[in-house]
Structures are given as structure tokens and as C-alpha cells.
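As noted in the main text, all predictions were made from sequence alone. Below is one such record, for Mutator family transposase.
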Amino acid sequence: MIYADTAAEIEKRRKAFLRKWKLKCRAVADSLEEAGDRLFSFTRLDLSQWKSARTTNAIERLGNPPRG
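Prediction:
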């Protein structure tokens, strides 16, 4: 999903993923639905910034002291 080129394509892939995983593993689909639009908030940025935004793990940095 996150490697799609447009927000519309992400939504299309998201819906297909949910259809598939609701049947195979409800917990996986529920987790994606719970994350909601927050998971794809990078799509509100300019396309040139998508890669940087989606690969920056802010949560991981919370538990680690700054380097330097």
C-alpha cells in the first residue's frame, strides 16, 4: 500500500487488503482499521516527501536517547 504513487491508489489497495484479511485473520484487518488514516497521513504531503515521511520511525526514536 505505502508504495503506491497516489493517495487514491493507496486507498484502493487498502480496501483490497481489508477484504482479503477480514476473512483470513480478522485481527490483522482490525489493526489496520484502528490505525485508520493516521497510518497514511504522509499522503497529505508533497509526493516528493512521501518516502522520507513514511520511512521515518518517530516512535522508535522515542525510546532511544539522541546520538551525538
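The chain has a mean pLDDT of 81. The chain has four helices and no strands. These features were considered when defining construct boundaries for the mutagenesis experiments described in Section 2.9.
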